[in-house]
User: Fold this.
Amino acid sequence: MIRILSALLLIIYAGSPAYSWGRKARVHLDYTRPKQWSYAMNYRAKCVIDEGGSNSNIDTRIMCRLTGKPNPDDSRLTFCIDSAAMNSGLYNPEQQEKIIDKLTGSRMGLALIRGCPVVDTLSSFSAEELSEWDLVIQFAKLLPDVPMRPVRKGYTWERNGIHPINTSLGTIPCEVYRSYKIEKLSARRDTAFISWRFRYAAADLAVDTSSILKRVPVSGTGGGTASIEVNDGTLLKAEVNFRTPLARVGDTKVYWTDNTVLSYLPDSLSPSN
Assistant:
């Protein structure tokens, strides 16, 4: 009878929040596995304009499908934009078509650190001109820098530094700060859910107010969430929201918000290797 009661108590404790909180999982990302991967990337930006108390919004939406595969030496990740679509109030149909033509088929390369591409290696990006839209910046915001070790729910960590970031305006020195937290581990510890806050602060010399109505500035603050498959280090989904500081162009006040979602496409939906 005592054994039965002890077993029941163990089962109850195993399902309790205290037990769940105490378990660990090794949270890591790994893009060096010898297989092709595909993601769907959906981006929406809103330019909010205040002209003497009269507000207006200009929306831009871009949808891309990305496919990539690591190089044999596992030190670099290359990916291609297989397809893209765009709907924007900033550009006329001819300009939108030109941007999509430049995006579609573009190939990029990114150095890897411990098998994971992070914002610190943005200067290694090589890409064709992508017109006014900086795909590199949007993609980088979606890539969390994970602890790469066993952690519990509630674990927090920070990353910061000044890094050169390639944009359509050229290479811009940017201070990047990120604060992460493990929000949840699944019951089987095979999926980790994380959140983070981040801040991008471009060098003053890089600020160009003349472009504020054409592109999202580098500087701003935001937050993100992501789910990671722990066993093989796959980023299943990531989402970030970003807002720029209020800027002035003459008597006009302008700020930008954007939302980007990256969703992993299972092998059954990916192109054959």
